[in-house]
Amino acid sequence: MRIMNLVLCDDGKNDKTIRALASDGKLYDIADISKDLFDILVATRIREDLQVDGNVTWPGKHEITYQDIPDGADLNNYRTSGFYRSRSSANTGIINRPAGCSSAFELIVTGIADISYCTQRIKTHENNREWIRTQTSWQQPYNTWTDWTEIASLVEGKIPIINGGTGAATTPNARYTLGVPAEIDVGNTSGFPFDWGSVVSRGGLGNTIGQSSGDNYYWGVDMWSVLWGGAQTNGATTPTWKRAMMMDSEQRWNALYSGTLSSGSANLTNGGKYAAVIICASPGAGEDSVFVCIPSGSCGGQIASNEHWLSFSYSVSGANSTITIRQNPSSGAIKYVWGLLKYQP
After folding, report:
1. Per-residue confidence (pLDDT) for residue 314, from 0 to 100
2. What is the pLDDT of residue 205?
3. pLDDT for 341 beyond 70
4. What pLDDT, in 10s, does the model give residues 179-234?
5. What percent of the chain is modeled with pLDDT above 90?
6. How far apart are alpha carbons 293 and 337 in whole angstroms?
7. What is the distance, to the nearest Å, from the Cα of residue 32 to the centroid of all Cα atoms in its chain?
8. How remote is the C-alpha of 311 from its chain's centroid?
9. Burial class (CB in 10 A: 0-12, 13-18, 19+), 126
């Protein structure tokens, strides 16, 4: 049953009681009305406090109420908090909406004040793109707005760096645009001229040795902390590598031999890795030392004082070299050999 009306009844003792007139034509005391049997079908005004034991529900409690946006509307005028919608892509006359919003869309308006300092969020129906902007003026005509900013998580294509993106559509190009090098752990089996190390790549950023590609440039250190640089240009499949000399030990002299070599030969470990060598010798027994500098390679010559001399030959085989006494008529001796400017690891 339904309550059709509320009736003020006189009980004959100058007391008045409100009773409910139900759909069955009978009057019921309010206290006797069961929530399972009755609902109220009458406009009712409550003038004092109302206490409800239990939950309060009503039809449409969880529904969102939208206001339609007509064609030709100006979104700058939608500053009151609420839910709005343009239901047709034919509404092409709506102004001040974001570029790219050409289909039906939803508009949500929130804010920290009633009609100023509001925020608008738009989501399109067609492809779920979203934009956001804020009204920043505190007084009429309330027409100062920030630009629409598209929410980046749903943007297709390239996002410029100035807008918080990478300016690229692929990982290699993003690294290149942002100036972030790619690091590669490599070994000499990969075509690099040194054992395991860490190499940084620029250029194609992602091409590896052996791939024909555009220009690529590499640099890094090997397992001995020696610096290398490489260039892979004009579609070459193998880069050309150059090794940097290290300031701590290689742009100075290093001892390759010390002793008394008066006949025969001495093998100089790593002697072939230096650009030049200095030889210190006494041409005759008991004489002062004489110094000569020669390029590292196959050559020969004499070391002489005013009275005596000895002759020698110098040869390189791979990383090592050999110095040999050819003639020594005055019992002289080679005492030291130093390598200068090491250019190989």
Report:
1. 96
2. 43
3. yes
4. 776 666 666 656 667 666 777 766 554 445 555 556 777 777 777 777 778 887 77
5. 36
6. 10
7. 71
8. 65
9. exposed
Tell me the two tokens of residue 310: 């000895």
Q: Please, are residues 316 and 296 in contact by the beta-carbon 8 Å criterion?
A: yes
Count of CB atoms situated within 10 Å of the CB of 120: 25
Distance CA 198, CA 225 (A): 10
* Calpha distance 325→301 (Å, rounded): 10
pLDDT at site 142: 77
Q: Do residues 193 and 212 lie in contact, with contact meaning Cβ atoms separated by under 8 Å? A: no
181, 200 contact by CB (below 8 A):
yes
pLDDT band at 281 (very low <50, low <70, confident <90, very high): very high
State residue 68's pLDDT score.
94
Q: How far is CA 243 from the centre of its chain?
A: 30
Residue carrying the six token digits 């390189």: 316
Query: Tokens 């040999």, residue?
Result: 324
**In the predicted model, what is the mean pLDDT of the chain?**
80
Say if residue 251 is exposed, middle or buried (CB neighbours under 10 Å; 0-12, 13-18, 19+).
Answer: exposed
3-state helix, strand, coil in the chain (%, to 5): 10, 45, 50
d(CA 282, CA 307): 11
CB-based contacts of 295: which residues, under 8 Å, 6+ apart? 275, 276
pLDDT for 300-322, tens place per residue? 999 999 999 999 999 999 999 99
How far is residue 148's CA from residue 75's CA, in Å, rounded to a whole number? 12
Helix, coil or strand: residue 83: strand
To which H or E segment does residue 177 belong?
helix 171-178
Farthest CA pair distance, the chain: 158
How far apart (Å, rounded) are the C-alpha atoms in residues 257 and 253?
12
